[in-house]
Amino acid sequence: MTPFGQAVRRLRAERGISQKSMADSIGVSAAYLSALEHGHRGQPSWEMLQRIIGYFNVIWDDAEELQRLAGLSHPRVTIDTSGLSPEATALANQLASSISDLSAEQIGQLRAVLTKEKSE
Known about the structure:
Blueprint: H1 3-15, H2 19-26, H3 30-38, H4 46-56, H5 60-71, H6 86-98, H7 104-119
């Protein structure tokens, strides 16, 4: 499941909305919506994102958060390390090969390190 998919599922659950009902309202199939929630589809298009935001009638910070989460929700990430150091290439490959073995705590620690580095 992607961060965006998790948010959509949470919003649907809070409002007691089925996938089929939401899918019908935003003009997609229930199978597409399910795949989007589970991360089997890529990031939603801008138009689809706007339909979902409109469907839930969220504004300001909540709409921006959904947009941010959509940007973090591509299930097949490519890291281009051409022109970077051999260490950067090794890190990218190591992460790709071992990410499925990391615990939620370890992933949180890695994200905290990366977020801290970006903000400094």
